[in-house]
Amino acid sequence: MNPKSNRISRPAALVLSRLVPAVALVWAAALRAEDATCQLTVHADQPGAVINPNIYGQFAEHLGHGIYGGIWVGEDSPIPNTRGMRNDVIDALRHLRVPILRWPGGCFADEYHWRDGIGPRSSRPKMINTNWGGVVEDNAFGTHEFLDFCELIGAEPYITGNLGSGTVQEMHDWVEYMTSDADSPMANLRRKNGRNEPWKIKYFAIGNENWGCGGDMTPEFYADQFRRYNAFIKNYPGNKVARIACGPSDDDYAWTDTVMKIAGKRADGLSLHHYTVMDGNWKQKGSATQFSEAEWFAMLSQTLKMDELITRHSGIMDHYDPEKKVGLMVDEWGAWYDVEPGTNPGFLYQQNSLRDAILAGMNLNIFHKHADRVQMSNIAQMINVLQSMILTDGPKMVLTPTYHVFAMYNVHQGAHMLPTDLAGPEYRFRGKAMPAISASASRDAQGRIHISFCNADPHAGVAVACRLVGVSPSKVTGTVLTADSIGAHNTFDRPGAVSPAAFTDFSREGDNLTVRLPAKSVTVVEID
Ligand code: AHR
């Protein structure tokens, strides 16, 4: 008997009997004595907004080994590569179906001058990367390399322009350089540098964190600047640019209000940045792998703040944009810890554990719930930086638990979200409580239903009685990610310590499905 199985918020049988009494008895019999119980109703008869595939977006900044070593090794490298970009990483990202990739920053974007990154590499000027370790950036990876990389992995490019220290002319020229097919100076310069066809650039951000590293601006000043820069970003024939305004940090609702008021009608998107930092203590963020249950609880309970932030920022946006034309782009999010011991503090290199997998799954469930407003998210960052998908060390590469969650969840890309009602147990720790289970559901174009679950409780399995309104399941399959310990993580020596496995611990009774989620796990089930 699990000692925590009495932590159910309401007796399962009571809740079940309120649903459909006869069915409830069958369900109750299907539950095991050792499981906590949970009831999930999936309203498959009420499909909601489409989950924009771009919610599964990534972010690659010129920061530490995010680009150099992580993507770019150069054409002469002994590491197998395609035009300088490592093949193992390309393969892993193709498998992940990355819909969109944000670049070149981050804070780097507002000190980046794109002309430094074109033309023969040997003559590209160098610069100091003042934000990230003060290292010398040689600009080997520039516009052509980034857009080539996007084509190689099949991702849409999302470019952040330099509003903080760049000119209006510079931003105007960059868009012309990339997207114009005219006989014009910028398009001809692109041709001279080896690219005849213009690229399609659908998403362009006008600055990054302009309330901070991007220029320390007030929202009024930024909103006016947005309008000015925006006026000179042109849609050349065959290309239409969605313009993303710099949005708030965390709960800065005043920023959202002012930018929406002054510039909202001209923007297609507004960004939101929110990192999960333990107790909001940026000086002591804790280790990514060596942590106690208190730290596990803190990170997973605090990451739920994302739901409140989206709800409140969306509420303000609704006031100015009731038709929800302006997307909320959560273009930086994830867990931020202290760097791994012995690494450059400016490189933000951190390991990635089962805790991060669950944290990622919980946030993706939140984004699904807000699919009507959240049109993009970009976890920070794709390789070797913060909560990454991939870690590299010279020729070695390893996939993180967070990678596996993205691979499991990407069945939701482009599907219709399905509303859910969840009544389940709490995970309690030292007098504090959080919901043990987070879930979301969607229906894809083939009519398949996917439900993704996170169980944050590190001790107790939870049996979820799923009521699928409007669906009779004929076939159920699933995948689960869990491990023996809360700090489990993948290393170059043990790359499979946290890896997905087939999920079979479910049973069907008529139209009802009971899934038994292991403690500390992420599970995705597919229902045909
Ligand atoms: O992702 C790391 C940094 O965090 C980004 O450069 C910046 O935009 C944010 O503050």
Total domains, how many?
2
**Are any ligands bound, and if so which?**
alpha-L-arabinofuranose
Portion in strands: 25-35%
Structural class: alpha/beta
What would you call the shape?
globular
Enumerate the spans where pLDDT stays under 50 for 5 or more consecutive residues.
1-30
* CATH fold description of the largest domain: TIM Barrel
What's the total count of β strands?
27
Q: Class of the largest domain, according to the CATH hierarchy? A: Alpha Beta
User: Assembly state here?
Assistant: single chain
Identify the CATH homologous superfamily of the largest domain: Glycosidases
Total helices: the number is 12
Work out the radius of gyration.
24 Å
Widest sheet: strand order? 2-5-8-9-10-11-12-13
On the 0 to 100 scale, the average pLDDT is 93
**Helix coverage percent of residues?**
25-40%
The span between the termini is: 34 Å
Architecture overview:
The chain is α/β, with parallel strands linked by helices and 528 residues long. It has 2 domains: 3-48 and 418-527, Immunoglobulin-like (Sandwich), CATH 2.60.40.1180; 53-413, Glycosidases (TIM Barrel). The protein has 12 helices and 27 strands. It has helices at residues 12-19, 21-30, 87-96, 143-153, 168-179, 185-192, 219-231, 253-263, 293-302, 305-320, 354-369, 401-409, and strands at 36-43, 57-59, 81-82, 85-86, 100-103, 127-129, 135-137, 156-161, 203-206, 242-245, 269-276, 327-335, 374-380, 390-393, 396-399, 416-418, 420-423, 426-429, 432-435, 437-443, 449-455, 462-469, 476-481, 501-502, 506-509, 512-517, 521-527. The strands form 7 sheets. Strands 2-5-8-9-10-11-12-13 form an 8-stranded parallel beta barrel, surrounded by 5 helices. It has a 6-stranded antiparallel beta sheet with strand order 16-20-21-27-23-24, with helices on one face. A hairpin with a 2-residue loop joins strand 3 and strand 4 (85-86). Helix 5 crosses helix 6 (185-192). The chain is globular. It binds alpha-L-arabinofuranose. Alpha-L-arabinofuranose (AHR) is lined by residues 61, 105-107, 208-209, 332, 380-381, 386.
